[in-house]
């Protein structure tokens, strides 16, 4: 086998070239490393600067938003304060008005208490006088006021269940009915004892509380009724039979005029005046 023969000079040249190449390669690598370090530092600094700018921008936006929210809250608080001030002023005015009304009501209460005291002293006496008056009222009026007169306490009663107001209203109710009856001309059917001692249904004509007349159903008997110191008393018409019949006819005619059975006209009645 033939071997390739390389000259020694060529071999040494190749070794030197290889060594030079390796040296240049080492220098190039060192140079590249030295050059890359400032770039990386600059890049890191740049990234930090960008991050800082981003954080500052976010902080600025957050601050502006917070300022707007705070401003809105301040305005809301101001409006609430104004509303509270208005409410306080209104409440103070209401309190002042209430104090004024309270004073007026207190004065009115005292006045009513004084009036009630006077009324309490008057009512028993008025009830006593009204019980005496009831004895002098005609039957039609007594029937009308019976629901009220039955509520009157008895003379010997010392404790009355009804209130003072109820007792006074009862008195006023009876007196109002009596006053109304006294201003009217009224007719009522009653059963009376007539001549001969027999009972007969009669028609009674009342000129208020001052005078009363009656006539029997057959117009043959008539009488006059007046209130004295006690109960009303009836008495027959005085005079002859003819006068009694004429008076009975007049009373009947007055009753028929009042009942619209006859046209209005003047009727002569035997009115007695003390």
Characterise the protein shown here.
The protein is α+β, with helices and mostly antiparallel strands and 274 residues long. Among the domains are: 73 residues, no CATH class; 90 residues, no CATH class. It is built from 4 helices and 5 strands. A 5-stranded antiparallel β-sheet has the order 1-2-3-4-5, covered by helices on one side. Helix 1 crosses helix 3 and helix 2 runs antiparallel to helix 3. The longest helix has 127 residues. It is rod-shaped, with a radius of gyration of 63 Å.
Number of strands: 5
What is the alpha-carbon Rg in Å? Answer: 63 Å
Shape: rod-shaped
* Number of helices in the DSSP assignment: 4
Spatial sequence of strands, sheet with the most strands: 1-2-3-4-5
Lay out the secondary structure.
Elements: H1 8-134, H2 139-149, H3 164-182, E1 185-193, E2 199-207, E3 211-216, E4 222-227, E5 232-236, H4 241-258
Antiparallel strand pairs: 1-2, 2-3, 3-4, 4-5
Short structural summary:
The protein has helices at 8-134, 139-149, 164-182, 241-258, and strands at 185-193, 199-207, 211-216, 222-227, 232-236. The chain has 274 residues and is α+β, with helices and mostly antiparallel strands. It is rod-shaped and about 165 Å long.
Throw out a few tags for this protein.
274 residues, alpha+beta, 5-stranded antiparallel β-sheet, 5 strands, rod-shaped
């Amino acid at each position: 086998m033939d071997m390739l023969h390389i000259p020694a000079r060529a071999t040494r040249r190749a070794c030197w070239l290889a060594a030079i190449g390796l040296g240049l390669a080492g220098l190039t690598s060192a140079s590249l490393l030295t050059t890359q370090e400032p770039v990386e530092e600059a890049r890191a600094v740049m990234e930090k600067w960008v991050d800082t700018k981003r954080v500052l921008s976010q902080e600025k936006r957050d601050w502006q938003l917070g300022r707007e929210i705070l401003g809105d809250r301040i305005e809301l608080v101001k409006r609430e304060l104004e509303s509270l001030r208005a409410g306080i002023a209104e409440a103070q005015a209401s309190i002042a008005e209430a104090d004024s009304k309270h004073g007026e009501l207190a004065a009115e209460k005292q006045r009513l208490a004084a009036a009630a005291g006077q009324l309490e002293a008057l009512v028993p006496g008025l009830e006593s006088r009204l019980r005496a008056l009831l004895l002098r009222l005609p039957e039609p009026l007594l029937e009308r006021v019976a629901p009220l007169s039955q509520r009157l306490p008895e003379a010997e009663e010392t404790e009355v269940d009804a209130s003072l107001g109820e007792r006074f209203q009862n008195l006023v109710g009876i007196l109002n009915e009596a006053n109304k009856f006294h201003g009217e001309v009224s007719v009522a059917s009653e059963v009376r004892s007539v001549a001969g001692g027999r009972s007969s249904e009669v028609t009674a004509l009342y000129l208020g509380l001052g005078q009363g007349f009656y006539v029997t159903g057959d117009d043959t008997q008539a009488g006059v009724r007046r209130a004295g110191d006690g109960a009303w008393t009836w008495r027959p018409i005085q005079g002859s039979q003819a006068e009694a019949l004429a008076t009975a006819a007049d009373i009947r005619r007055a009753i028929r005029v009042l009942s619209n059975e006859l046209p209005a006209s003047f009727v002569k009645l035997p009115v007695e005046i003390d």
